[in-house]
Amino acid sequence: MPARCEVLADHPHVALVTIDRAEHANALDPPTLRELAAAWRRIASDDAIRCAVVTGTGDRVFCAGMDMKTTIPVSQRLARGERIDPEDFAGLRDAGTAVLAGFDLGKPLVCAVNGHCRAVGLDLMLASELRFAVPHATFALEEVARGLYPTGNATVLLPRQIAWVHAMDLLLTARPISAARAAEIGLVNAVVAPAQLLPRALEAADAIAANAPLAVRATRAGVRELLTIPLDAAYRRQEELGRPLRKTEDAVEGARAFVEKRKPEWKSR
User: Fold this and answer.
1) Are strands 130-133 and 190-191 parallel, antiparallel or unpaired?
2) Which H or E run contains 55?
3) Helix, strand, coil % in the chain, rounded to nearest 5
4) Along the 269 residues of the chain, how does pLDDT read in single tens digits?
5) How far apart are CA 50 and CA 211, in angstroms?
6) Alpha carbons 113 and 91: distance in angstroms, whole number
7) Would you call 93 exposed, middle or buried from its count of C-beta atoms within 10 A (0-12, 13-18, 19+)?
8) Is 38 exposed, middle or buried (0-12, 13-18, 19+ CB in 10 A)?
9) 138-140 and 177-178 as β-strands: parallel, antiparallel, unpaired?
10) Alpha carbon 2 to chain centroid distance?
11) What is the side-by-side order of every strand in the sheet holding 51-56?
12) pTM of the model
């Protein structure tokens, strides 16, 4: 399978999604697009999964973007109105979901960037909440250098996540930046040794998954929503979002567990 989704027995409530095309720089061809989209739909619909981690195989590339030898020619033929293979069409149809552009996972995502992260690989990373990268990773949005508009997450999310000038540098110059620079401008949380990359990402995912599921999902959704509205409306809206949670069984359990000095047992209700 070009993309795998595993629920890890030793990491309760965490799913690991792996792009498995190291021999092709983990570039996304139509089958990989279909598998990734299926993985995200599974995670979104499974209440037992509270957090996900995404990474790539190998030690060189996280994701080089769309496969230039398969996906790009197929999409060009489709744009010209030519007939394409039904399975290729299904892959193109799933492209937005595969890179989480316009598809809300509904749960936190941690990205373990094991190498170079380019084009739609960076689009996928931008959909995550936490990000860790190896020292040799590089980051680039190369669409303008190929005469294309970045139609994934970059023009929508990047200027909301890092400073305007740094976002414009990535979007308009098409020049790669190093992992150290990505950490400096707040594009990733930390740069870690390759051997520690997945353990660090899973540790963060476990910390998220240990918290009250309803509260985590509401907080994630609230932050995304509040970014887009004026400040006074945001304060009103956050109260609207927080009020229902205070009435849940989990809120009662959280307070009781704190007083009793024990781990809470969440019921998601």
Assistant:
1) parallel
2) strand 51-56
3) 50, 15, 35
4) 899 999 988 998 999 999 999 999 999 999 999 999 999 999 999 999 999 999 999 999 999 998 878 877 777 776 777 777 777 667 778 989 999 998 999 999 999 999 999 999 999 999 999 999 999 999 999 999 989 899 899 999 999 999 999 999 999 999 999 999 999 999 999 999 999 999 999 999 999 999 999 999 999 999 999 998 999 999 999 999 999 999 998 888 888 889 889 889 898 88
5) 9
6) 23
7) middle
8) middle
9) antiparallel
10) 18
11) 3-7, 14-19, 51-56, 109-113, 130-133, 190-191
12) 0.93
What residue ranges define each of the domains in the chain, with the CATH number in brackets?
A: 3-209 (3.90.226.10), 213-260 (1.10.12.10)
Q: Which residues are paired to 164 by β-bridges?
A: none
Tokens of 34: 């279909």
